[in-house]
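Structure tokens please, single chain.
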Amino acid sequence: MKAFRLILTFYKSFALASYLITFACLFIMHRYGSKGIYIIQILFWFKIFTLAMLVYSTNSYKKNEFYYYKNLGLSKLKLWPPILVFDFLFFLIALITIASNNYEPLPGS
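Here you go.
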């Protein structure tokens, strides 16, 4: 439970930026409507790229804060994977949900 709270505290430091990127991608997907299925690959790679940029910038700007988490028993390798997996799964589930709601099958199929 302690580790979960620490990971959540760390995630709060950049969650807003991550959610803004996610919701921008979802908005674009929704605006494309039934043709949105064609831009999923672009949005997928855009999210991967922006997550990498968030990791790099967080590692750069909060490098002294990592000592706090290290002293409490959480290294960078224990902080980043759960956050990235959660954030990307949230993005994928939301993207697939919007894509399936916007998808219009071809007539006669």
